[in-house]
């Protein structure tokens, strides 16, 4: 590893206290991967060779079904782990999702064989992986449980969840991405956003949205 990457690796390890998660033996072979916007990190069904931890930027995680239709599984921000699902899957030799950078991003990469030797025997690393899997399961179940809601209620649920994580004011994702996450069309999404503005439940301008009062969302967003 070149000195610049060593410096960056040390910076992110210190920033996120990754030395409490990753053992020295696993850290020894870790590397820094820098991605430009719109560049792909993995493609669905490509060979599974590394685990990645997102430490800077944003990634889009997509899944394509057999009919070619795609679903946005997540818009990932740090610290998002890539490869945890594949690590424990019965057919874990292939990547499950297509992942691309939504903005310039930085990841730490760990060779799969090294992870199997030093990661799967480390309680601290396993705890980190379990927390990542738990978060993904929760977010997935959140979307699935809202399958029969109206578009407006799906949007309210999404906004409520994000307000809990980010506060009452945050930047809304691109309409195309958000529509794909909710499983609706961009036109339906725009109508729902307009409706929530008119009801004074939210106040949105450009990409920013402000939740005026979470209590106005009603009871159907509870989870």
TrEMBL record:
Domain Cyclic nucleotide-binding per the UniProt entry, residue ranges: 33-115
Top-rank taxon: Bacteria
SUPFAM superfamilies: cAMP-binding domain-like, Winged helix' DNA-binding domain
Stated name of the protein: cAMP-binding protein
Native organism: Photorhabdus khanii NC19
């Amino acid at each position: 590893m070149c000195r610049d990457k060593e410096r960056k690796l040390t910076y992110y390890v210190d920033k996120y206290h990754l030395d409490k998660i990753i053992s020295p033996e696993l850290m020894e072979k870790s590397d820094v991967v820098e991605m430009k916007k719109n560049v792909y990190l993995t493609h669905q069904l490509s060979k599974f060779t590394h685990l990645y931890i997102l430490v800077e930027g944003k990634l889009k995680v997509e899944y394509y079904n057999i009919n070619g239709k795609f679903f946005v599984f997540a818009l990932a921000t740090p610290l998002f782990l890539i490869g945890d699902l594949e690590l424990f899957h019965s057919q874990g030799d292939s990547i499950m999702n297509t992942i691309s950078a939504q903005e310039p991003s930085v990841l730490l990469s760990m060779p799969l064989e090294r992870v199997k030797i030093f990661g799967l025997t480390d309680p601290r690393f396993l705890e980190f992986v379990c927390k990542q899997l738990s978060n993904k399961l929760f977010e997935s179940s959140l979307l699935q449980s809202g399958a029969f809601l109206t578009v407006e209620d799906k949007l309210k649920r999404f906004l409520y969840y994000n307000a809990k994580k980010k506060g009452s004011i945050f930047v809304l994702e691109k309409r195309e991405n958000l529509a794909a996450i909710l499983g609706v069309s961009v036109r339906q999404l725009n109508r729902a956003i307009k409706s929530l503005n008119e009801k004074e439940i939210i106040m949105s301008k450009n990409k920013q949205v402000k939740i005026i009062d979470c209590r106005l969302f009603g009871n159907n967003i509870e989870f």
